[in-house]
Specification:
This protein is α+β, with helices and mostly antiparallel strands and about 600 residues long. It has 3 domains: about 170 residues, Oxo-4-hydroxy-4-carboxy-5-ureidoimidazoline decarboxylase (UraD-like, Orthogonal Bundle), CATH 1.10.3330.10; about 300 residues, 3-Layer(aba) Sandwich (Aminopeptidase), CATH 3.40.630; about 110 residues, Alpha-Beta Plaits (2-Layer Sandwich). Helices cover about 45% and strands about 15% of the residues. The protein contains 22 helices and 16 strands. A hairpin with a 5-residue loop joins strand 1 and strand 2. Belongs to the peptidase M20 family. Homodimer.
Length: about 600
């Protein structure tokens, strides 16, 4: 018989610990301390309480917890002294069937890892879907993490321990993340479409209107139809649009969605999560035969990343009437114009058809978007969901300091006009200045010394600046200070400065009412509400120009890495994300039914 939250809440402290036996390897103290945090409102609430206990315990108990876990394919497996839970997990991953060469390699990795960090390598071998990683994936992860720092690996081991506990709890409670599995499987299937030159290497690349891109659009269209959308189609710029009518088809709609194109050699969830999660919600509504008092429109935006053509946010921009006519004549790396690419995809490629996509804001309640965080904050905090307060405003510059080339051996330090050290000083100032703000970031992503030589004081140094902040005012202050400092550096170091603005994007603060709905949706899962800004650009920042918007972030695995094949999500987090979105829909249902 499966465990229930009510049983746990009613149990004596000793019974509570017994019921959770085996959740954390040889560490009953975690359950003992969590018992005092009752009552729990949900399984997610319980999981967070257990995580909170471990986080508050301090380094010594945390280290003991890590060391309580067996090595992968280690001595305990060979001697068959693993716990039942670990035996099951390592067996499902195929570690009990290693070839002699694989076993020897794992033994060496175990020894090297322990020697470097002083604790065993911990990996949730059941993986993000719970079905089990294969031996190749396990070994590849082991090899990659062996090159980390002790601080990072200590935290990563604990995160994997919590994932192991999460899977074990799911089995104790007989709770299957049905919607999370569905979305995870959809993302996996969609990632089967990739462009030549990348697909052969197992890399995911889907750029605007390529064959892989068009295959993704067709797949999304088919899934939307299966989910029960009333209207499904591909519009004049390649957006996949699904509409689920309200009880009154003429009622205003809630708009949502994200993009399905990718960067080159990217991840499976950036953008796509924000299409698939609301699709799962429509599927649930359709299966229940339910209609809401408002319409629900889900858009898979065809382009956001600006990879094939320099036309970032083309998909969402078209919905607010922002399509630059000059884009049609842009050429890709092979000389194919956007107009020709559109025509090859069966799109009309006319400004009239594209202009017709503009949405009337009066017909919409607002725009919401779910997205992976694309950063480490939620992962560091062991939180599945976070509420976005604002999409950062940004400004980008290309700059160059110009000094005088001179002999590196004969030019005294106080007589130099060194362009490279001027740039270095500016980079360090930008780092310090952004760090002084809450939420600001500054990046010097490109540095070049043209025609540099090992024995010549650099005459020129070219650089880029990417400056972002949660509000326009904060961004403007950051820009002003860095520009002023660059001028002071140029004057003091006797070099010339050229600084060219290449892009400015306004911040997109979340609409208060929509942010509050996301907050309520997170609380309803039994989770604390954590607020954070988004440092990345999103389709929501375009729709923000037309209607109120707010975003929900979901944690990414592997320290939140994104735009990278290591981008990862779990089925359990995704389940919570679908439930949070469904809760937001129910809030709107109650508001409009009152």
């Amino acid at each position: 018989m499966s465990l229930t939250i009510d049983q746990l809440n009613a149990a004596t402290p000793d019974a509570f610990v017994a019921l959770l036996d085996g959740t954390y390897e040889h560490s009953p103290w975690i359950a003992e301390r969590a018992a005092a945090l009752r009552p729990f409102t949900s399984l997610a609430h319980l999981k967070h309480a257990l995580v909170t206990v471990v986080r508050a315990a301090g380094e010594a108990p945390q280290l003991a917890l890590i060391r309580a876990h067996p090595e992968l394919a280690g001595k305990a497996m060979v001697s068959k002294t693993l716990t039942a839970e670990s035996t099951n997990e390592q067996g499902k991953a195929g570690l009990t069937d290693c070839t002699p060469a694989e076993f020897a390699h794992l033994q060496q990795l175990n020894a090297d890892y322990n020697a470097k960090f002083g604790f065993p390598f911990i990996l949730a071998v059941r993986g993000p879907r719970g079905l089990g990683l294969n031996r190749h994936q396990i070994i590849a992860t082991f090899e990659r993490r062996l090159h980390g720092t002790r601080e990072f690996e200590f935290a990563e081991c604990l995160r994997n321990i919590h994932r192991i506990a999460e899977i074990r709890l799911g089995e104790k409670f007989a709770e299957v993340p049905v919607q999370g599995n569905l979305v995870w499987d959809w993302a996996e299937a969609l990632a089967a479409h990739s462009e030549p030159g990348y697909a052969e290497r197992g890399e995911l690349t889907v750029t605007y209107l390529t064959d892989a891109h068009r295959a993704c659009a067709q797949q999304l269209q088919a899934w939307m139809t299966e989910c029960g959308f009333d209207e499904v189609g591909i519009d004049a710029v390649g957006n996949v649009v699904g509409v689920y009518h309200g009880s009154d088809p003429a009622a205003p709609r809630l708009l949502t969605g994200s993009h399905y194109d990718t960067v080159r050699n990217g991840g499976k969830y950036d953008g796509r999560l924000g299409i698939l999660v609301p699709m799962a919600c429509v599927r649930q509504l359709h299966q229940a035969g339910r209609r809401l008092p408002f319409g629900f429109e889900v858009v898979g935006f065809a382009e956001e990343e600006g990879q094939r053509y320099k036309a970032t946010f083309l998909g969402s921009g078209a919905l607010i009437g922002q399509f630059n006519p000059a884009w049609l004549d842009q050429q890709d790396a092979d000389g194919v114009t956007m107009r020709a690419a559109m025509q090859a995809a069966g799109l009309p490629a006319t400004l009239e058809a594209i202009a017709a996509l503009r949405r009337d804001p009066a017909r919409y309640l607002g725009f919401v978007e779910v997205h992976i965080e694309q950063g480490p904050v939620l992962d560091d905090l062991d939180l599945p969901l976070g509420v976005v307060t604002s999409i950062n405003g940004s400004a980008r510059y290309l700059g160059e300091f110009t000094g005088v080339a001179s002999h590196a051996g004969t030019t005294p330090m106080n007589r130099r006009r060194d362009a490279a050290t001027a740039t270095a000083e500016l980079a360090l100032y930008a780092e310090a200045r952004a760090s002084a703000d809450e939420g600001s970031v500054a990046t010097v992503g490109m540095l070049a010394v043209p025609q540099g030589s090992v024995n010549v004081v650099p005459a020129r140094c070219q650089f880029s600046l990417d400056l972002r902040a949660p509000t326009n005012a904060q961004r403007n202050a950051l820009v002003a200070d860095i520009k002023h400092q660059s001028e002071r550096i140029a004057e003091r170091r006797r070099v010339q400065l050229r600084l060219e603005e290449t892009m400015v994007a306004s911040a997109a603060p979340s609409a208060a009412a929509w942010q509050a709905r996301w907050e309520a949706a997170v609380r309803a899962q039994g989770l604390p509400v954590f607020h954070l800004p988004s440092g990345a650009g999103h389709d929501a920042m375009k729709l923000h120009e037309h209607m109120p918007q707010a975003m929900l972030f979901m944690r990414g695995g592997n320290a939140g890495i994104s735009h990278n094949p290591l981008e990862s999500i779990s089925n359990d987090d995704t389940e919570l994300c679908v439930r949070a979105f469904a809760h937001l829909l129910e809030q709107l249902n109650q508001e409009h039914s009152a």
